[in-house]
Every structure is written in C-alpha cells, then in structure tokens.
TrEMBL record:
Record protein name field: Uncharacterized protein
Keywords: Magnesium, Metal-binding, Methyltransferase, Transferase
Recorded GO MF terms: metal ion binding; methyltransferase activity
GO BP field: methylation
TM stretches of this protein: none
Family matches, as PANTHER family: S-ADENOSYL-L-METHIONINE:CARBOXYL METHYLTRANSFERASE FAMILY PROTEIN (PTHR31009)
Species name: Dipteronia sinensis
Keyword Methyltransferase: yes
Amino acid sequence: MATTLVSDKISQKPLVDSKAFPELPGTVVGGDGTYSYYNNSFYTRSAINVSKKEVDDAITRKLDVKALLSSTFSNTIRIADCGCAIGPNTFYAMKDLIETINHIYQSQCLSTSQTLLEFQVFFVDQPSNDYNTLFTSLPQDIKYFAAGVPGSFHQQMFPESFLHVVHSSYAFHWLSKVPDELVDKNSLAYNKGRILYPFGPVEVVNAYAGQFAKDLDKFLSARAKEMVK
C-alpha cells in the first residue's frame, strides 16, 4: 500500500454522483438502493458468521440465566445491539443470540420451570440512522419485542443494571469525533488533501489510536453501568 494524495484537479470530477448518497453524517447509507448499506453489507455479515462460535461460547460461559431470573423475578432478557445500522445483519445477529440464550435456558432451567423467556431487543445507532428502513425490513417471524434507541453508544443509553446482553459488530471504527490533531494546522498529523492514510506519518496513527482508546473507554464505562450485575 502507498499513501494516496488527491489533487485539486482530480477532486474536481467526482467518481460517483454525490446525489446518490444522502447526507447522513456518521451513519451508513440508508434506504435499499444500489449504494445502500442494506445491499452492500455482505462482508460485515461474514464477520458475524465467522465470530458466531466465539460469541456463543462467551454467552454460555458468562450468562447465568438461572441466577438472573431468580434475582430479578422476571422472565425477560434485554439485549442491545450497538451500531445496528439498517439491517439485515443486525437481525441475523439477534436471532443467533436469542437461540443461544434459549438453549442455555433449556439446559439450566427448563427442567424446573415451564415459563418461556421473553426478549426485548434495542437497536442502537445515531439519530441520523435510517430507522425507517431498519424497521420496515424487520423479519415477520421475530421472537422478540423490538425498539429503536437513537444516540451515541459512546455515552450511557440505558438505566443502570438494565441490560443482560450487549452486542456490537463492525461498529467500533466509528469514532465519536475526528482526532483533534487532524484538524490542527500546526500538527504533524494535519490532514492536508489526503483521504487515505496507508503509510501515513506515525503522528496520524497515534492520533487515531488515542481517539479510539478514549472512545473504547467511554463505551465500556457506559456498558458497565447499564449491564445487570
């Protein structure tokens, strides 16, 4: 790979008609058109499929359904998908999670309880996310109660001790802000006419790494408050 610089002459003629992309800062392209995330999310779905076993193993190890139900006197499991976008990948992920949790419940509790679990799924993304496409494409056979929660997952989005499971896939690369160094003209990481950063200065790497670390800390701190202890 090599650093890519874009000159004024090149940038005068866009490669793709900008009108094809609605202005949704910080979100994927909405709708179900040619350039939409809905029709261009095969690779992110592949990542969900590849990581399914690891996710299932983690839930099996960490989630004590029997203890949760006995402590909360409720048969409702609350799940949040942070960075849900507009589907369909989030639906596949939630279906897999619920199947895994139901399997755990059957092995831990069903012999002593005939109560079936109920599920609430909260789809979390930026307010500018295309929730219309998300919910109009919601599968008809879902086995959970669905709700949208608009906002940044870098902050607390739910009451304390509320969620049982939090899922996020292909979302952490969405930073909460552009690193300050990239817009500071006096910084060695200043972004001057560059749209890609392969082999960019180490200052650029450090700026992005620093912002990512801050955002990840905010994400984990918020989820620590929201998760049922």
